[in-house]
Amino acid sequence: MPTLECDHETVAGVTLVTCRLTSDATSRVTVEPTHDDPIWPPRRQGVPEQGWEDDRWIGLVPADGVRALGYATPADPDGAPARIAATEPPADDEAVTARDVIRSLGDPAPTRDAVPPTDAETRSVSEETGANPGDDTGTDTFDVASSDLATPRNGGRPDTSTNTTDLDAIETRLWTARDLADVSTVAEASAAVERAGGIGAVRDLADQLADDRARLASVEERASRLAAEAEAVSVPVDSLERVV
Amino acid sequence: MILAVAGGKGGVGKSTVALNVAAELDAVLVDADLGMADLPGSSGPDLHDVLADRATVEEAVCDVGSLTMLPCGRSLAGARAADVGELRRALERLARRVGPAVVDCPAGLRSDVGVPLLAATACLLVTQPDEPALTAAVRVRELARALDAPLAGVVLNRTDDVAAESVATTLGAPVTQIPESTALARAQRAGLPVSHVDPDGRPARRFRGLADRLQSLRSAT
Prior knowledge:
Helix content of chain A is 36%, strand content 22%.
């Protein structure tokens, strides 16, 4: 019969719970908190340690052995913070799960820092710091417009989001494209290619302009639609003021 | 059937092999390279959306030319939002509700390779006859063994009629050699199986032979 001993300590609003499971026979034990507050189990490679799933721990306790586990929670429990919810004999074959694989091999997702912030996130940071969006000196945000990542390579899905820095980047590319197109001699062509950063950069520029055309068409379509909707709708401020 | 196409090393031709094998087996081609997808995309929901619980696999499956595909998104934000832990369930649902799947795995040995291998009913290794590629293939073979994914075959890419007995013996599966071919490169650039560009060429015939052997797996699962 498994038994559970728990201890807990609250520090700065966070309770650290330690549990000690013992059993006289090998058992598969489910431990769950006695409170409804969230729990924060230990993590490996970004996923909860083996055994933790849906705010519960399920694992094997060996015969005459000890299993120790712990977690953190914002709860401040009066009595025992956790209890044994179920006990069953061990399964013949403890199957490997996808979470086990991630725990062993690592999560391949790019880190948060590698992902360009959305417009909303940029606005949020700017509001917090009082800085102007796009002002390099005021924030430490990723400059989407100046990066290749700003190029809409999202599987062909129309990207209708844009801002003035995006348009500035497109304008710069168009300036370079015109410079490359306005050549009439071999010497002028060589100089223009050199100014553009080499023939590889020229090829990239051609690809980017193709994406720019698609993106601008989407933006134009969205802007026209929004303009028509804006014309068609008006906020009845006077009526609303009378009823509230 | 879920066939995971893996190789460990990048640039050995996994995507080319996956595309052609999927076409020959008339299976759904899954672009499981969550961070650097390189198979044809679509404008609808994709694997990133499925793994972020924004779409079902049935909604994300689409026809791209002659292929049936579960494409993958290209954005870093999509890759970050995608939960690779859900990939097994998604692949199993795909195989159950849509049909057999050929999964183009990314390079490396992280969980975005491990989870497809865990879901797979068989694994196809793609490699080249050089030391780094063969070493990577051996590592993937070991991972596949640990995750109970039986090895259905080995594709030795960009070779033709070289002595491959030692590769077959070391990796423990029959070897199919796919020769270097401009038709194959042209077809891949266009997102087409080589059988559409040069149906009687050696690459197309080799892929047909490989698919015939894999058919027995498909009918067995």
